[in-house]
Specification:
- The protein has about 120 residues and is mostly beta strands.
- The protein has one domain: Cathepsin D, subunit A, domain 1 (Beta Barrel), CATH 2.40.70.
- Helix content is about 10%, strand content about 55%.
- The protein contains two helices and ten strands, in the order ββββαββββαββ.
- It has helices at about 45-50, 100, and strands at about 1-5, 10-20, 25-30, 40, 50-60, 65-80, 80-90, 95, 105-110, 115-120.
- Strands 2-3-8-4-7-6 form a six-stranded mixed beta barrel.
- The longest helix is centred in the middle third of the chain and has 7 residues, at about 45-50.
- Keywords: Hydrolase, Protease.
- This is Clan AA aspartic protease.
- GO terms for molecular function: peptidase activity.
Length: about 120
Amino acid sequence: MMQGRVNQRCEATLLIALTNNKTAQMVDAVTDTGFSGFLTLPSDIIATLGLSWEGRDIATLGDGTFCTFEVYIGRVIWDGQYREIYINESETLPLIGMQLLRGYDLRIQAIEGGLVTIEALE
């Protein structure tokens, strides 16, 4: 089980660890159920971690529009386990998408400071 908090902008956030073979970086990411990918990161974090470029992909945004992303391969510590995932480059706040949430129950206490709980489904 993982836990985060609802911030002042009423965004459900979770602190996640990204890693390569040499370094790890903690990133505060916003859960975005309208994003169909795994995770977005800005280019500076991608460069710091030295992530490998995989190609391009089209993802659905929260407003229903489609966007082309540069895609990288990275590792995240998710629910205590290392997972290799696709990371879309985007100059926004880091976003956790539905592919990373797949197979998990997401619960949000939708008040400032409220608890965000992500728990594996049985």
